[in-house]
Design a protein that fits this description.
Layout: E1 11-15, H1 19-32, E2 37-42, H2 58-66, H3 70-77, E3 80-82, E4 84-88, E5 96-100, H4 113-122, H5 135-142, E6 156-158, H6 161-172, E7 178-181, E8 184-189, E9 196-201, E10 206-208, E11 211-214, H7 221-226, E12 231-233, E13 242-248, E14 258-263, E15 266-272, E16 277-283, H8 290-300, E17 310-313, E18 317-319, E19 323-324, E20 327-329, E21 335-336, H9 344-357, H10 366-392, H11 400-407, H12 412-424, H13 437-446, H14 463-481, H15 487-496
Parallel strand pairs: 1-2, 1-11, 2-7, 4-14, 11-20
Antiparallel strand pairs: 3-6, 4-5, 8-9, 9-10, 12-18, 13-16, 13-17, 14-15, 15-16, 18-21, 19-20
Helix pairs in contact: 1-6, 1-9, 5-14
Flavin-adenine dinucleotide binds at residues 16-21, 41-43, 46-49, 51-55, 161, 183-184, 215-217, 219, 221, 243, 245, 280, 312, 314, 331-333, 339, 342, 344-345.
InterPro entries: FAD/NAD-bd_sf (IPR036188), Flavin-dep_Halogenase_NPB (IPR050816), Flavin_halogenase (IPR006905), Trp_halogen (IPR033856)
Organism: Pseudaquabacterium terrae
Pfam family, one: Trp_halogenase
């Protein structure tokens, strides 16, 4: 293969118009739009995956970068607020905990808050629930929400994915993004460099470009079919490979958290929006067939089913390279872990921000491509470990699925984290990792790990001092949360004001 020609990057072609395609279009148009000629190709006939409705707080940063007004966004996507994820039946049938987005307690110079709470529990001085020391956790439990001043609540959104893509389209087109409707039937390459030259559409048009962003979803038409980048399969660690999704009418008040309800061979999501509820069963096809999954979902949803359930198949894993030649894969084309911690939209955002940071204005350079791929791989592996934790650390042994999850081999990086926490209650976050210490702690405690030897600093406090320290935090959380309005009433008023 010839060396890459140093062509300046001016013409960007985005293949695909799902959440990934339109997030990339919006971000590039807003930041580099005047320098670029951006075309997005999508096919209404093929459609989008249509799920992906729970997000994490980093989406606020993306909207800030774009200058998106939160009330307008929420009104357009019929969004609600999200303070975390409630995990039901994960540790054991009947058990539940919340992984919230907030900070729990207050750290000390020498030790994290969990050590003081663990010592407090040992001595009968602490509340049984770790989350009682966290505003977001308590607000989620109490079904309350409001924007708070100063170090307010850390929140994300539940949104309607189809409406979100439409909203981003209406944001991007006035900034100059050209949308082309059509089916990509061929991807044409330069004979010398092996780079992509153009997309050929069903009606004969050719869309030429310098840089191609593959947002074609699981099809991965450019990065997979054309560029031949292999897929690293993680299904030996992440057993679920299927989902069935259904939307239902709302019954009852919308809670400000995603419900993740473990079942016999996977889990079920419930995502409350303003106008409906998104539901789905994630399952391992080795243990449950599609018809049984559909039937089980329909039995377990609440409210009228608004459309027939849809089955989606996926392979957990990632592309060995997200960027090869002049093709960058963002979104499902680049990989998919699974939806448990709502990380895919975040990964789209990271993919496009990273592209901006390494943007090949003066031509593509191998060192930039390598760095992009190195960072992407690292980021995905960290998230993968966090998800595997939920399946592996469980007391459930009621079905072959859970017995296999408990006994499966896990990545060495995860094993090391679990052992450290089990032994001493310690967690350390490496730079640029998505999940902070408090996320790991909440899930490890929630899944049932009890550290053997919490940090000795907490022993230095006498009973009275420790009680005072813990109660001060808990009461502060109660004073903040209890006067807040009900979540749904707040959303109605907030969005009604647009
Ligand atoms: P798609 O939505 O599939 O879009 C692909 C685009 O490519 C479409 O516009 C399509 O028309 C176009 N296309 C494909 N082939 C062609 C062709 N030949 N010609 C022209 N156009 C073409 N993420 C979260 O962050 N939170 C969640 O809660 C969450 N839940 C999920 C649940 C499930 C079961 C699954 C499978 C995923 C979930 N995700 C979630 C992931 C999320 O749905 C995706 O990351 C997000 O929707 C982005 O998808 P995409 O744009 O990459 O692909």
């Amino acid at each position: 293969m010839q060396p890459t020609p140093p062509t300046p990057t001016r013409r960007i072609v985005i293949a695909g118009g799902g959440t990934a395609g339109w997030m990339v279009a919006a971000c590039l148009a807003k930041t580099l739009g005047r320098k670029l000629d951006i075309t997005l190709v999508e096919s209404d006939e093929i459609g989008t995956v249509g799920v992906g409705e729970a997000t994490i707080p980093t989406l606020l940063l993306f909207h800030e970068l774009l200058g998106i007004n939160e009330q307008e966004f929420m009104a357009a996507t019929l969004a609600t607020f999200k303070l975390g994820i409630g995990f039901e039946h994960w540790r054991a049938p009947g058990h539940q905990y919340i992984h919230s987005f907030g900070l729990t307690g207050r750290d000390h110079w020498t030790a994290g808050f969990q050590h003081f709470w663990l010592k407090g529990r040992e001595r009968g001085l602490a509340s049984a629930e770790y989350g009682d020391y966290c505003t977001e956790h308590r607000a989620a439990r109490e079904n309350r929400f409001a924007h708070l001043p100063k170090a307010g609540m850390n929140y994300a959104f539940h949104l309607d994915a189809t409406r979100y893509a439409r909203f981003l389209r209406s944001f991007s087109e006035p900034l100059g993004v050209k949308r082309v409707e059509g089916k990509i039937v061929d991807v044409l390459k330069h004979a010398d460099s092996g780079h992509i030259r153009a997309l050929k559409l069903d009606r004969g048009a050719e869309i030429a470009g310098d840089l191609f962003i593959d947002c074609t979803g699981f099809r991965a038409l450019l990065i997979g079919t054309t560029m031949g980048v292999r897929y690293e399969d993680w299904s030996h660690w992440l057993p679920c490979d299927s989902a069935v999704a259904a939307q239902t009418a709302s019954v009852g008040e919308a809670v400000p958290y995603t419900r993740s309800i473990a079942h016999e061979c996977g889990w079920q999501w419930r995502i409350p929006l303003q106008h409906r509820v998104g539901n789905g069963m994630v399952y391992a096809s080795r243990y449950l067939d599609d018809d049984a999954a559909k039937a089980t979902l329909l039995q377990r949803v609440q409210g009228e089913v608004l459309a027939p359930p849809r089955v989606l198949k996926f392979r957990p894993g990632q592309r060995e390279e997200a960027w090869r030649g002049n093709c960058v894969a963002i979104g499902l084309a680049g990989g998919f872990i699974e939806p448990l911690e709502s990380t895919s939209i975040h990964l789209i955002q990271r993919g496009v921000i990273r592209l901006l940071q390494l943007f090949p204005s003066d031509g593509i350079c191998a060192a930039d491509v390598d760095e992009y791929n190195r960072q992407t791989r690292w980021e995905m592996k960290h998230i993968r470990d966090f998800i595997v934790l939920h399946y592996h650390v469980t007391q459930r042994d009621d079905t072959p699925f859970w017995r296999d999850c408990r006994s499966m081999d896990i990545p060495a990086s995860l094993r090391q984290r679990i052992e450290l926490f089990q032994e001493s209650g310690r967690v350390f976050r490496a730079p640029n990792e998505l999940f902070a210490e408090n996320s790991w702690i909440q899930v490890m405690l929630g899944q049932g790990i009890v550290p053997r030897r919490p940090n000795a600093t907490a022993d230095m406090m006498g009973d009275e001092e420790l009680r005072h320290f813990l109660e001060g935090i808990r009461m502060g959380v109660e004073r903040t949360v209890m006067p807040l309005p009900r979540h749904e009433a707040y959303v109605r008023e907030y969005c009604g004001a647009v």
